[in-house]
Amino acid sequence: MNTLASIMIENGLPFEKGTLFTLNQTNTIVGREVHDWKPDLSIPNIYVSRRHLAIFLKDGRFYVKDLGSKHGTLLNNEPLTPNKEYELQDTDQISIANHHIQMIFLSSSMDQTADLGPNIPIMHTDQPYVLESINQELHIDNQILAFSEKEFICLELLLMKEDQFVDLSDIKEKVWPERIYEDQPAPDVSNEEINALIYRIRKKTKDLMTITNIRGKGFVLTFLP
Prior knowledge:
The chain is of the alpha+beta class. It has three helices and 18 strands.
């Protein structure tokens, strides 16, 4: 099972934005807890059905299925047909009950063979660390931190310019090259998407480094003492 897969809450009380739930079992039921029923991921919202949707692993890939909920489920703003399986891709948005709850599926790609690339050993003043590009991991201080594809690309850029300013435009071009079109000068990426990406990286590296936001301009990565 791909242990990198998780669900991040984008919007939905009582959870804070960016709350992560690891998908550590083959079938995860999302719903509302009642006195005789507790789902794997409980969302205390009156618009959420007791058994609202399932996210499950099949043949090495993750799928989502609405379980006949009262108020429905959207995948990237498209309504799901109840009890029909839909394959999930990294950063797909899952919305419950007309956007009352919004979640993002996070996973490294499992349906493509990764291109071989070199590990990038980088020497920090206090501690050497290695960016392992095949598995999208940071090896440092006897720790192995795993990242999604876009998290890893962004982190690599910030690390290569440690203690230096990294412009938003550089992050957009490196992380979202598929959104570069001939009729526009830069990738079509919102500030919310960038902030969510940086939030996830910060959460995973909070004991090692800080990523400072230069409001509206870019970011600076600095290791903690």
